Amino acid sequence: MRPTLRYFLQSAKVATAGGAIGLGSFFIYTRNAEFTSIAESDPIFKLVEQKGWNPHRNPTTHDFYVRRVSLSDIRPELRDSPTELTKTFCAGVWSDWGNVFHPGFSIQRALLKRARNDLNQNHLWTSEDMLSSDYSEGTLIADSFEVLEKKDGRIVVRGGDSPSNKALRQFDVILELSTVIQEHEQAVDFGFKSIFFTGDKHSGQPPMPGFAVWLHLQYAKLLLETGILNTMVR
How many structural domains compose the chain? Predict the structure, then answer.
């Protein structure tokens, strides 16, 4: 199955699960995520250029959601540790500790687990492992993602294919999970940034059709909210 189609189907199944609990509830749950632009000078574009992953300069689909949360709502042990805050946020994105109202990555993980016959032992597969990982560079997630960078309050991950494929990809994905503590406002800005592109050939076209982009945007907001929940006072 083509990587683009596989991602589309996975996003559609997540969206369908969201529909099962009510689209109204889903949109209320994700209403505080704010869509913002990504500057051409953003490090995520520079990383793709430095790695040579889009040599044909194909069009990208990219987005950035930010959600501000009061510092008083964050677990006390995370408020003075940006590194620990970012790691805990990242762990919440990938683990499936949530319930039916915020299934997060659990649906996609189940689909990946079913599709992969060889569950590599050095990959994060269980919710427990995903919650306890430090997400250092080289961490492998569900045979579909690899941590590229972990610094300055951000964790950058490559997806779109198995991490074993180091070559140019038909469907390439770079994600950035970030936290910024705003001391003056006594708040934290959580970020979920994505860039998608075709790397292995000249296409001249965006990597996903419009409806798939819409599904991805809903999924991105859901993952953002699930990650944030893992950092909050309970």
Answer: 1
